[in-house]
Structures are given as structure tokens and as C-alpha cells.
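sanity check this:
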Amino acid sequence: MDSLKDEIDRGITIKSASVTLNYLVKKALFDEKDRPIHPIKVAGDVGSQEDSDEHLPLQVNLIDSPGHIDFNAEVTAALRVTDGALVVVDAIEGKAVQTEEVLIQALKEGVTPVLMINKVDRLIIEKQLSPDEVFDRMQCVIDDVNDFIATHQMKNLPDQRVSLLQGSVCFGSGYFGWACSIDGILDRLHNVAKERAQLRKSLAKRDHFIKNVIIPIVRMHRACGVLPVLKKEKSELDRVSRVNELLSRIPWSSNLRLSRKDNDSSHTEPRKFLKKVMMEWLPAADALVDMVAVHVPSPEQAQKWRAPIVYSGDIEDECGQGISNCDAQGPTVVYISKMSSGASQKGLLAFGRVFSGTIRPGDKLRALRNDGKETKAKISGINICGIGGKMHAIELAEAGQLIALEGIDKALDKSGTLTSSSKGKAISHMRFSVTPIVQHSLWPKDKTKLQKMASELQKITSADPSALFYRDKETQEYILAGAGELHIEVLLSSLLQNSGIDVEVSKPVIAYRETVQYASRDVALAKSENKHNRLWIRASPLNGIIVDAMCGELANTRLKVLAETLVKDHGWSKNEAGRIWATGPEPLDCNDKSNNSNQPTCLLVDSTYGVQIPQDARENIIEAFKQVVRKGVIVNAPMRGVRFDLMDIKLHSDSVHRRPSSVVPAAMRAMRGAFLVAAPSLMEPMYHVDIRGKSSTLEGVYSILGKRGGTVMDTSSSLSMDVIVASMPVRCAFGLAGDLRGATHGHASCSCVFNGMKRIPEEEEGFVISEARLRKQLDEKVPNVDSFVDKL
């Protein structure tokens, strides 16, 4: 489904591509009563296939999402609007770091995974494993995936582990176009449900499965000529005869036989002939669709347990009930998970899902944005996605259906909720596992195209869930931020392709964060310029568990909810939690509240006693807090995990003498002074680095990691390769992939995943601070405490 120029040139998926497909699936797949199997109902009337005595109509909304970790936000957006995830795992390499990230996101969203074990052909052809070893390797992959699912799945949901016996696992080869599952085999053997259930139990035995499934598949590879023909087999026969003779002895071959024309010159090469045979014998599309039909829940089923996960309001209100019941007659609730540029000449297309109700062109709905603001939206058109990116207009869409809407791109930013209910709440914001930690300032080579560049990049980043584009108010630089090097390259390539604008790009700028190490021993005092107002502030570090919670489950929650959670789960007293005034810093882009690095993790707490603080003074102190935590003292970076306590305050009784121009600067100086006496330090983003390659070629990897400040966390070996897991600062990771390829002669690959923030080592901190201050044109030295605090 890759259609973009960058996707074709690089051979990877960059943007998610959606398509709505209609199938007929056999009713016999749903006949067994000992398994919780449910057919998927077609949502809406979109040219669906007619029902018959033997088949059921099935509409599959398929989203092909990227595998590269830099574009993982596309996967997050796809998971929000789907009920099932087809997880593809390499039979040789096993579960990769990207697989783990996708599985964690799917399980958090309440999405049901099904498993496809790919590249089984390599086990047979390259590794030439015995049938027993092929089965054991596949079982190892299944066990590994299930162990991971069992660790991360939500306890109040149905068991989401996969099973070869139950049919939620397919195995095959994408290259040769074949796939096989136990359901497909049993369907070919018997149509009587009772007999099929007995055969399922029989095939559950390892020896029976190997004898009846794995061995015939291995023999087919041999019959097609990709493996040497054994002496005891009929080597004198031509390959078509060998294949037909083998098919005649396989009970589940469905009377398939090859004709002589299948041995024509276009299939003389054994691999091409194998591909033709396997695609006819075990077509991948049939196996995968049957698995999806049986094991992915319908929207009506899935939304019953997903409703409390995705809906931010009361599940008992009208919208909560509409979502839970997937009610086409309920209030309209539509979630837009992403925008797409270039798909419509009139503007951006908004891709999403109808969770409740029915929508039609012309409907006017409330648009609930990510920044908490509300606007009005009018739907000018409804589309479903066809093959090749073509859009097909429809007259209505009901609950459970994926759609692409026209006319609402101005009402919402990158994502948001549309609803007809006057009291309905928004669908919860998505939580991305990647974050825009790599930043560049950029400018066009042709200075006259500055505004055109800004306009085009704003459009491009609006259609990218994890990209960020803004103008620094202080330096007036245009900043483009992405999840990694490749992400930035693709964004700039899109700019050049869409507008012809070539740009100059600065060196990478890392998104540092400022923090403190322990509570300040002294309270910082600052006086207003008119000397009529005094504030005493103390700074201290927040517990790391609380910081992680504010980046995760507590993100974007109201102060009341935050306070209740701190009391319930983190040992705060009700009095202390109830006196939280504000959180910060606000995101650089007020609409972008979905990335972990952008979440407010600092608190302002009123710790005064017996003091009546006027509302105007409170608002001024909060404003000072927001400015201080947005731009810290060390390198003007946002603060992370810092708690500011207002310990005491003395204000002039006349409001004329405590105007914002007096109180705000004094409060800012007091907070900055308190920060400097609490052992300030700088934090940097870290990568979890997963390096894979043949053991004989990885000797040079350790020296490269050492030179780049990496720390080896774990090593392991799989069937054909070694795996090195390391932790590395993002600032040291630029060009890592190229260095690894050079040191291993192209035999090693790596993937880097954002893995939170960590303090910069003390011996490196001075250099990093000096470099960052120089780039931002700040004074060489960090200001000292005396620059901010006053003496009594």
C-alpha cells in the first residue's frame, strides 16, 4: 500500500494507509461452540457482499502502518480507531523492539492482537531446519509474544494471548505469498463442527501437528526444487508431477492439482515456481482474513470493554452508553486520530472512527480540540478509503465504521472529538511512545520563500502526529522537531516535493530539561521593585513516580483529579494536595499535548499558613510560575519534576501596589533563586538501542557504543544472530546507524526508541551547558543565586 515517493525510494512505510475491503467468509468457521468466536458485522452499506447459505459478508477496515520506530505515532493513531492488531514477527529474529512498542500500545488501547509468524521459508530453505526444529522455533516465538502480552495486558479485559491451537496465530512467508493457520487446515478437512473440534484437539499434540502440517509444507518446498530431492522420493518425476503426487497424499490439499502449463518458462526458477504453488495451495489473503474474521472482535463487542479506556467522561452518560453499545441511534461521537495532506484539494482529510451515532454530510457538530477549546464543525463530505488511496463518497456512516471526513480540518488540529451531544466529553487524547526530541532550526536558501516555507511546514506537520513546527519567540528561529534523524529527513523531503523549497538546516538541537536534585536548604526571598511585596519560595524535586504518572495516566487531568490521585496513590495529605495552584510547563505548541516530553511535570503549591492571598496576587504568582518552568535558568530549557512551594508572602493592602508588573517579576526571581539553591542539573533524552547482527560481525559494536557514551544493558542470542541492548544519550546517537554498518560491513542494524529523560553525567554537564548557552546566544556563565534573591 506504499504510494509516497519516499516510501518507494526507501522501501519502507512512512504514512499509514487505510483501505476498506469486503469479503465473504465461510460460516463453518463460526460453528464450533467451544470457542468464543464472533463474526464481524459489516458497518454501513458500502457495496458489501450478499449473504449466502455458506458465507457471511465481512467488511475489513485495514490500516497498513509503519514499522520504523521514528513513525510509531502513525501506529498509535491507527490503534485508536481499530479493534484488532495483526502483529508480524520474524521467525528467525523473533520479537523486535518495535514489536514490543506496538504490543504495549495495542494492549493499553484494549486492542486484540493476532499473530503472523513471517519468514518461515527462511527456516526451511536457508537454515534447513528439520520439521521438529521448525515447529519448536515457531512455538518459541509464540511463547515469547505471549509472555510479553501476559505482562502488559490490562487485567479487567479478556485474555489477549494468542494460540496456535485456537487459530489466532498464522505462519507463512510474505515473500512467497503463503500463510497457514489451524482454522484453515480444519476447514479443508471437515465441515462438521464436531469432527473439526476433535481434530483440533488431535492437532494440539506436537507430534501430530508436525506430521500433518509442518512435514507436508517442508516436502512441498523440496518438491518445488528449492531443497534437494531425497533419494527415497521420486526424483525421476518432473516437478509438476512431484507436486501433484504430494498434493494427492495431503488430506487438506482441497483437490488442488497443477496443470502442465504451470511449468512454463516464466516459472523455471525454483523459487518462482514455489511462489506460484504456495500462493495457490495456501493463499496468504485467505488465511489472514479468516483469522481476522474469527479472532478480532466486532465493534459491538470491542467497544464494551474499550469504552472506559477511550472515553474521558462518565461511562454512564449518554455518550458513554452510546460508545459502549456501539449504538447507531445514539448521540454522535466521532474521534479523529490524524489528518492527511494531499488527499483532498480542498484541505486536509480527517481520518477517524464513528464510535456512536450516525453522521451525514451537512451535520453540524461540536469539535472538542486537544487544547481544551471547543469550536463548531460542519461535515462537507464523508469518504471511505479504497485501494490505491482512492476515496469513495458515502451518504452516511454508522457506529463502528472508519471514515475520512472533509471540511473539519480548520475546526480540529491534529486530532480531536466530534459530538452532537451538548454535554458529551471528549475521547481521551492518544499517548505516543515517540516524542519530538530531535530539533533543528531551518531557513530557506531563497530568503523570499520564508513565509511559504512556514506555511507549507505547518501543513505538513499538521498531518504528522509526532512532528512539531513553531517559531521561537526569543530567537525568531523556525524550529522543526521530530522523533529521529529519519523522521526529520522525511519531513524536509516532503517540503521539497510539495513546494520545491530547499532549506538550510542547523545541527541537531536536543530537547534538554532542567531539574533539581534535592530540596533547597534556604528559602529564596525576592522583593518587588517598589519594595511593597515580598515572596519566599522553596524548590524541591518531585518523586520520579509522580513525574512518570504526570506524563502518563495523569496527563491533561484537572487539578482536582491530580490532587485526588496524589492523596490516594502517593501519600500526600488532603490539605497539601488541595493547595496545588498550577502545573507546568505548557507545551511549546498549545495544541500538542500528546507527547510525553511535552507534559507538565512541575507543581506550584501554596504552603503558607494563616495568610489570606488575594485572587489577583494568586493569578500573578501562577503566571510567574508558568514563565519560569517554561524557560529555566541553566539553558532556558523547560523544567521537569520541580516543585515550587510558596512558603510565605507579604503584600501591600492596596491592589495598586501589587499589580502584575510588580508581583510577577518578583515571583519569577524568587523561583529562579530557589531553583539555583536546590542543586540544579540538566536532563537529556535517552535512547533504548537495539542492535542485531551475526555474532561474528559484532566485535566492533562495543567500541562504537563506548565512544558514544552508550551503556550495554543486555545481550542475547537467537537462531542466527546476536542482540545487543544498550542505553545511549540522544545527543550521541546521530550517525550511529552508519557507523554500525561500516564497522560490521553492513551486517548489523539498529533501532532507537525514546526511553525517557536522565541526568547528564557530572563530568559532561559543563560542556553540554556551555554548548547549549552558546547556541542560544546566552551569557557564557549560568547566573548565580545573588542575581535573583534579595536579603531581608
